[in-house]
Amino acid sequence: MSQSQHTDDRPVLVLNAGSSSLKYQLLVPESGEVRTGGVVERIGERGSDVADPAAALETMTDRLLEEGIDLGKVPLRAVGHRVVHGGPDFSEPVVIDDAVLQRIRQLSALAPLHNPAAVTGIEAAREHYDVPHVAVFDTAYFSSLPAAASTYAVPRELAEKHSIRRYGFHGTSHQFVAQATAELLGHPLVDLRQVILHLGNGCSASAVRGGRPVETSMGLTPLQGLVMGTRSGDVDPGLHAYLAREAGLTLDEIEALLNKRSGVLGLSGVNDFRELVHLVEAGDEDARLAFDVFIHRLKHYVGAYLAILGGADVLVFTAGIGQHSATVRAAVAEGLDELGIAVDPSRNEDDSTQPRVISPDGSRVVVAVVPTNEELAIARQTADLVR
Ligand code: AMP
User: Fold this and answer.
1) What residue ranges line ligand 1, CB within 6 angstroms?
2) Taking the chain, what is the end-to-end CA distance rounded to the nearest angstrom?
3) Domain residue limits, the chain
4) In terms of CATH architecture, what is 187-374?
5) CA–CA separation, 293 vs 287, rounded Å?
6) Nearest CA to 150 among 227, 214, 193?
7) pLDDT tens, 53-66?
8) In 3D, which of 370, 383, 355 has the Cα closest to residue 206?
9) Which residues are part of the catalytic machinery?
10) Which of 230, 267, 342, 381 is the most exposed place for a label (fewest CB within 10 A)?
């Protein structure tokens, strides 16, 4: 083995191509050193000069050149792509070849709002960078959910024919945070029962026993579960037929309504949680209701996951809202003393960027804030695969 293989400091480029943005980061997986990163926004929007993910990649390349980074000359190790839906096919990261790309494209039926952008991003990146490309799937971690958790009670033949099951999403984040929490507590991962709340623009909860997920709140699509910035989360499945019949909406309109105009936005008029909290503090009643619905649904899942796990050792908050909103964390924990869950007010208010415990010493359930790092997780999984 050559010296350079022992101390490989070549970076991995991590790309997360969404429907309207391209997030990128250039980082060294072993050390976690971030060489650069950013986001190209408003892709395909009216008035934007970035038409599609391929154009976004050009914009990214230009920006990096301005920073003095010529991606054509940087010795890239690989490109890691975040792909939202791996369907029934992908339970692990995979090196992308034409057949894999075709399969990801076909999975667009399961994720019409997400996978097409990833496909276009991968196609453009493969043309630009002649290095291995790896797909890391948001669903992969949850592919081992027990059947009792992953199965919808619909006719089995239909479910099999159309790959209908609960897949779960944000898996890269939940897996990373489960491991990082074990490190924070100094306990082996295999000994821990964890309830993890990933609260960002998208929100999801998971129950993890011994490092393996046993439940999660998202399902066939990332629409199920918690209330999110613009997504409704759980609604009565009968709502779709009711809206079609009574409001005369088409399927596409219902899908757009529940994904893009519901959640915190639909209830309060804003989807950024900081704005919501400001409105609540200013006495806005719609914002108050949105906040209360958001917290109520969170408690619903925390309670459910305590039952699924038979009690928890740790309750973990992560992602933008989870990491930064002491108000949300305090509201979730409020009234749960009987269940062993409480937060220490001054620990909770400490807005550190480090993983930390915010429950009082000696609590039955440790409450922790553990920053997620999906880019680092993707870079590491990419590097492991191409090593
Ligand atoms: P993410 O998707 O993880 O980047 O999280 C984005 C969400 O985190 C947005 O709704 C932000 O408003 C929210 N967020 C970020 N900082 C704060 C904060 N200090 N308080 C409340 N919400 C925050």
Assistant:
1) 200-201, 229, 272-274, 277, 319-321, 324-325
2) 12
3) 3-137, 187-374
4) 2-Layer Sandwich (3.30)
5) 10
6) 214
7) 889 999 999 999 99
8) 370
9) 138
10) 230
- For residue 109, CA distances in Å to 22, 87, 139 come to 21, 10, 15
**DSSP state at residue 230:** S
Q: Tell me, in angstroms, the distance from the centre of ligand 1 to residue 93's CA.
A: 28
Determine the distance from the C-alpha atom of residue 67 to the mean position of all C-alpha atoms in its chain, rounded to a whole number: 29
pTM (predicted TM-score): 0.95
pLDDT value of position 2: 43
Calculate the alpha carbon distances from 281 to 288, 307, 346 in Å.
Answer: 9, 34, 20
Per-residue exposure over 255-280, b if at least 16 CB sit within 10 Å of its own CB, e if not? bebbbeebbbbbbbebbebeebbebb
Cα of 273 vs centre of ligand 1, distance in Å, is 6
Q: 3-137 and 187-374: same fold?
A: yes
The CA distance from 295 to 289, in Å, is 10
Q: Predicted confidence band at 6 (pLDDT cuts at 50, 70, 90)? A: low
Residue 55 DSSP one-character state? H
The CA distance from 196 to 177, in Å, is 8
Residues 335-368 pLDDT 10s: 999 999 999 999 999 988 999 999 999 999 999 9
Distance (Å, rounded) from C-alpha 195 to C-alpha 303?
10
Q: If DSSP codes are grouped into helix, strand and coil, which group holds residue 353?
A: coil
For residue 3, name the pLDDT band (cuts at 50, 70, 90). very low
Side chain identity, residue 317: F
Do residues 347 and 294 make contact, with C-beta atoms less than 8 angstroms apart?
no
For residue 264, report the distance from its CA to the centre of ligand 1, in Å: 13
pLDDT higher than 50, residue 28: yes
Domain 3-137 in CATH 3.40.50.150? The answer is: no
Q: Which two tokens stand for residue 3?
A: 């010296």
